[in-house]
Design brief:
Blueprint: E1 4-9, H1 15-27, E2 31-36, H2 38-48, H3 52-57, E3 62-64, E4 82-88, H4 90-97, H5 104-114, E5 119-123, H6 130-142, E6 145-146, H7 160-175
Parallel strand pairs: 1-2, 1-4, 2-3, 4-5, 5-6
Helix pairs in contact: 1-7, 4-5, 4-6
Domain Flavoprotein: 3-163
Family: Belongs to the UbiX/PAD1 family.
Pfam family, one: Flavoprotein
Amino acid sequence: MTKRIILGIAGASGSGLALETLRQLAKAGAETHLVVSMGARATIQHELGDEGLARITELASRVHSPHDMTAPIASGSFPNDGMIVVPCSMRTLSAIAHGLGDNLLTRAADVALKEKRRLVVVPREAPLHEGHLRSMLTLARLGATIAPPMPPFYVGMHSIDEMLREIAARLLNWVGVDPGSAMTRWSDLPQGRLPSREMDI
């Protein structure tokens, strides 16, 4: 069955990861509902250039304005399989954690939580202060998956594109969409690249 996934892009750095996540969702045949915050539009233009927003939106099945609180994704009656917020700014993360549905992105995420659907949040900030960590803990306790974009170095990536592919594939996996061959699994690695059992850890 076709998966229906909501994807939110907040204003943090990481537009390339959002683009790759949408690419993989499209390749997996998912129906995607995209909402891009106003802050994200500026970040996308800076990181991906003047055509960046168009490259992102053309991959989505449907694009919703962050101001449109009457959009179907604002309601719990809209059936879907989950939501990814990538990247997620600390402002957006805090708003989701505390139920502040002040735009369509944060409202859709709030709906995912209240309806007990999968919500994968990809925070992009460093270092983290106690307020950030408290908001992440609150979200985790509410049922969200907190997924900082940590590269799986053990797979032997050789480029930024490979790193983005591997991280995006894991986001799909956590929201319940099979990423296929985009995700390198531990069992896929040649024996020669696995750590020795005798390694001093």
